[in-house]
Amino acid sequence: MTGATSGSGMARGVGLAILVSYAAAVAGFLVIGPPLLHASSVPDPGDATGGRRFAMALALFCVAAAAIAVLHVGHIVHAARNRRLSADARALWIAALVVGSVVVLPFYWYAQVWRPVRDAAPEAAAAEAGIRQGSTH
Q: How far apart are alpha carbons 85 and 71 in whole angstroms?
């Protein structure tokens, strides 16, 4: 296997890992975190582990918020350095990511991270086939 195919395969894996991380962080922050925090903050006189449950829920909530922030900043930096975009398109994506935050990020990920990797995969395979063909003759 040459670097072209393994590189695009690795980039595709990284792209999927980013999406899964983002989905898990959003789920933890918006869906799981608040109900868990609320349920664990209601005092139950017969439950000695209530404080521990609350601390764990708060930790999950904070980790999810930090993951969202890191992914968000990473995508803003990616947009700023993305040379496939014109200056106007870069500025528009950055503004959209800053203002739209959690809603816009999956659209940017699909349009600027996932699609270029997916579209490059057939080209990388063709380039590898050409390399193999050239080396056998």
A: 20
**What are phi and psi for residue 48, nearest 5 degrees?**
-80, -15
Number of domains in the chain: 1
**Residues 113/78, Cβ–Cβ less than 8 Å:** yes
Boundaries of domain holding 91: 3-136
Q: Model confidence over 37-92: pLDDT tens digits?
A: 676 666 665 666 666 777 777 787 788 888 888 888 888 999 999 988 999 999 99
3-state secondary structure of 47: coil
What token pair was written down for 135? 């080396």
Q: Which residues of 116-137 are buried (b: 16+ CB within 10 A; e: fewer)?
A: ebeebbeebeeebeeeeeeeee
Rg (CA), the chain: 21
